[in-house]
Design goal:
Length: 186
């Protein structure tokens, strides 16, 4: 199975979980599954195959056991449940990814104009850090360790995985690269 197929399998399981999340009232985002699938794929294009395989096994196992990791993530985002995991790698990963996201905001402000704020501003629970930390809490220890190992290598090589994901996104949307998308977004 190639990386595209692997990502497709991950997104398919996540989509099942996403559709099963109980929400109060109508949830417009659950009606836009194409956008959900696209944005999840954008996230996973920066992951390595080992981490993707571990994550796929983890979410399949959770789903088969009746655990909806999407429900847990959104409940954590809204502070409706206590922390789901206390693995110290969550803070390590979140810190690194927040640095990368800040760099995206600094270098490409027009592209990032509608992105989540990086940190909570006190008025809502929708920041990049909160969203990310809530999601990371749903990952198994093996997935967290593998993701950390991958990101550590990428960081040592000077890569910013937020930029890798956004570069994929803008190319998919028809731009040459991030600079082209930034100019077009101004």
């Amino acid at each position: 199975m190639g990386l595209d197929e692997l990502i497709g399998e991950v997104v398919a399981v996540e989509k099942e979980m996403f559709l099963a999340v109980n929400t109060e009232g109508d949830c417009a985002c659950q009606d836009d599954l194409k956008s959900f699938a696209f944005h999840r794929k954008v996230q996973f294009v920066s992951w390595d195959e080992t981490t993707l395989r571990l994550y796929l096994a983890h979410i399949r196992d959770a789903w088969q056991q009746g655990v909806n990791l999407m429900t847990i993530k959104y409940a954590r985002m809204e502070d409706q449940i206590p922390p789901y995991s206390a693995n110290p790698l969550i803070d390590t990963l979140a810190g690194r990814m927040v640095r990368w996201q800040r760099e995206m905001h600094e270098k490409y402000p027009a592209i990032m104009a509608k992105a989540r704020p990086v940190e909570d501003d006190g008025s809502e629970y929708r920041s990049f850090r909160r969203y990310l930390s809530s999601e990371l809490e749903t990952y198994s220890d093996a997935v967290l360790a593998s993701l950390n190992a991958h990101q550590t290598i990428c960081e040592a090589q000077g890569q910013n995985l937020s930029m890798v994901s956004y570069a994929y996104m803008v190319k998919t949307l028809g731009y040459d690269d991030l600079d082209h998308a930034e100019q077009a977004s101004k």
